[in-house]
Amino acid sequence: MVLDANDREVIEACQRGDWDAFRLLFESHQDRVYSIALRYCGNESAAMDIAQETFLKLFSSIRDFRGGASFESWLYRIVVNCCLDHQRRGRRLTPFFDGLRDMISAPAESALEELLHAEMAEDVQKIVGTLPPEQRIVVVLRYTEGLGYEDIAEILGCSAGTVASRLNRAHKVLERRLAHFRVRGGRRV
Amino acid sequence: MYKPEIGEVLTRHLGRVAAPEELWERIENPQVLARVPTRHRGVRALLVFATLFVLAVMVHKYSMTPPVAKGALNTACQLCHAGA
Questions:
Q1: Labelling A14: which of A46, A62, A165, B41 has CA 20 to 30 A away?
Q2: B23 found inside a domain
Q3: Cα distance between residue A24 and residue A17, in whole Å
Q4: What is the helix (H) or strand (E) element at residue A187, kind and residue range?
Q5: Are the CB atoms for A46 and A86 separated by under 8 Å?
Q6: In whole angstroms, what is the distance from residue B29 CA to residue B17 CA?
Q7: Whether this model's pTM surpasses 0.90
Q8: In a domain? residue B59
Q9: Residue B5 covered by a domain
């Protein structure tokens, strides 16, 4: 997570209040921010709210960013805080438990692999959504962003051991739920 | 029993997605920020109404309670203490 010279210039322009630079910064990071928000909350509308809030916070506080630190870690911290705040404020719009009954009941056979993949993705997202927030955010940072334990620990302000332990607990829960789903559904991933 | 390699499954299904086009528009127009969903507004209004209703009932009940005259109260005390 090292800042290259180009990024540094863009950030410095943002710090001077250059709106075009903000746009550039937004375009570089919009998918990352939106994906974390979406994978965390599982709802497109809530993800849009979180992404919007993240960029507004980023733009309003970019003057506080010191070049020595990792910009990406800083951005990750903002988006993670926005995700957690959003949930704390009780605006979790995701109907995580909606369709849970359908998910664990035997689905109809289908020959369309693509359809199965989409359905499976939705189910995985729903099951991830049932994890406690501290485990869910670790799963999202690990699998949506592909971050290592040390990076996640830095973003969350905890030790790498804590990250490993949370991820391990999440894996066990997910494995059990997905396995149960597989057996009941008789489908392949 | 089928036991998926959980890491693989998660990597495959929790990948990045493209942000919607309208995200930038929402950043340029931040008044859209933090909309309270309609149903939450409804629940909030209902709670406020229920609270006001309970308060109104309590005030009404209190105002309907007949005042007890001091004299009557003293008589009642004396009767009790007298063992009546």
A1: A46
A2: yes
A3: 13
A4: none
A5: yes
A6: 23
A7: no
A8: yes
A9: no
Whether this model's ipTM surpasses 0.90 comes out as: no
Confirm whether B14 is domain-assigned.
no
Shortest CB distance from B2 goes to which of A55, A145, A179?
A: A179
- Say which of A26, A128, A182 has its CB closest to residue B4: A182
Please report the pLDDT score of residue A164 as a whole number.
95
B32 CB near a chain A CB, below 8 Å? yes
pLDDT in tens, B36-81: 455 566 777 888 888 888 888 888 877 776 666 777 777 777 777 7
Please choose, from the candidates A17, A175, A66, A4, the residue with its C-alpha nearest in 3D space to the C-alpha of residue B4: A175
Q: Which domain, by its residues, includes B26?
A: 19-81
8 Å CB contact of B2 and A38: no
Indicate yes or no: CB of B13 within 8 angstroms of CB of A23: no
Query: Hey, what domains does chain A have and what are their CATH numbers?
Result: 5-88 (1.10.1740.10), 100-185 (1.10.10.10)
CB within 8 Å: B6 and A175: yes
Q: Is A116 near chain B, with CB under 8 Å?
A: no
pLDDT in tens, A46-94: 999 999 999 999 999 999 888 767 888 999 999 999 999 988 876 444 4
Q: State both tokens at A112.
A: 């369309």
